[in-house]
Specification:
Layout (H helix, E strand, L loop, with lengths): L3 E6 L2 E2 L8 H5 L4 E8 L3 H11 L3 H7 L7 E5 L2 E12 L2 E12 L2 E8 L4 H9 L2 H4 L3 H36 L4 H34 L9 H64 L14 H23 L3
Parallel strand pairs: 3-7
Antiparallel strand pairs: 1-2, 1-3, 4-5, 5-6, 6-7
């Protein structure tokens, strides 16, 4: 993939430079480089490593996705791994962001996903007073951008849950709806796992790395922490609501099954009356009640029908039919 990079000094973008001229920029006071690349090749990573003197272990971690969210320090350079998510229509795309931050550079390496970091860059350029703090403010803007997407996804998942809850109470869920319920639970868990480490990363930046998160930026990093805590609470409530929805659905299914069983038992009781009567008269004994009476057959039918009718009325009144 093509590398996109820009040079800044005192919050102002410098004229476009070539990659080999980066050392010249880094030699200037208050200047830094912002580099962004998506799904880099090994050759590109090696070139970046040599140019910015990155630690080989950190570069090895940044070469592939499936890293756990973390913040690690390698001398004067910080390496941050974070999960990303973006809502597009009704689908959520996931990826990973590996970030190298030094006093004179910020390097964003995106694996998968569709996050638009050029918008973060434009936001920073529009706030020169804060952008003058260099990579520290750029890192805050990136983390804030990721968390903003998490907030949108949390709201989207809440809407999906509300729709499923309505379906649970208005209609009997089919297999597809049940699968959607479990899929939604997995999405909530994935959102929680992506968002929660950001809070710890911000706290560690404030506490242990004041050269990046300078004092003037502490309120901004704490604001990101606050947003993450809201997402964590929201995802926790969503998980509880999903568990409750599953239990309610199971209870409703059980109630519906009980209603069916009651109806079947009621009709079985009604059909049991003629079954018993006619089975007795089908035993072919020589001496049976009313065998020689001309009205015996219709009388038996009428009595059987009357008994069935009375039992039906009682079962209907009790709610079994």
């Amino acid at each position: 993939m093509t590398m996109n990079f820009a040079a800044y000094q005192h919050a102002r973008r410098l004229p476009d430079i070539k990659f080999d001229q980066i050392n010249t920029v880094l030699g200037q006071p208050e200047a830094f480089i912002w580099l962004t690349i998506k799904d880099p090749t090994p050759a590109q990573l090696k070139r970046i490593k040599n140019q910015f003197q990155l630690h080989e272990l950190a570069v090895e971690d940044a070469s592939s996705a499936h890293q756990r969210p973390k913040l690690e320090s390698y001398g004067d350079t910080l390496f941050i791994a974070a999960h990303t998510a973006r809502l597009r229509d009704d689908d959520t795309t996931h990826g990973e962001l590996h970030t190298f931050v030094g006093r004179q550079f910020i390097i964003l390496i995106q694996h998968g996903g569709t996050i638009r970091y050029d918008r973060v860059q434009a936001r920073c350029e529009a706030e020169p007073g804060l952008f003058a703090h260099g990579p520290g403010f750029a890192l805050y803007a990136v983390l804030d951008y990721l968390v903003d997407h998490f907030i949108l996804i949390a709201a989207h998942l809440q809407r999906k849950l509300d729709a499923l809850e309505t379906e649970i109470f208005e209609n009997q869920l089919d297999a597809t709806s049940i699968e959607s319920l479990y899929a939604l639970k997995r999405e909530v868990a994935r959102l929680h796992n992506a968002a929660s480490p950001i809070s710890g990363i911000c706290a560690e930046l404030i506490r242990l790395h004041p050269e990046i998160a300078v004092r003037e930026l502490h309120p901004y990093y704490r604001d990101v922490e606050d947003h993450v805590e809201r997402i964590i609470r929201s995802s926790g409530m969503l998980r509880e609501a999903l568990s409750d929805a599953m239990q309610v659905n199971l209870a409703l299914v059980t109630v519906r099954q009980n209603e069916v069983v009651k109806r079947l038992a009621g009709w079985g009781a009604i059909l049991g009356i003629p079954t018993m009567v006619f089975s007795m008269y089908g035993m072919n004994f020589k001496h049976m009640p009313e065998y020689d009476w001309p009205l015996g057959y219709p009388a038996t039918l009428l009595l059987t029908a009357f008994a069935c009718r009375e039992l039906y009325k009682k079962l209907k009144a009790s709610g079994w039919l």
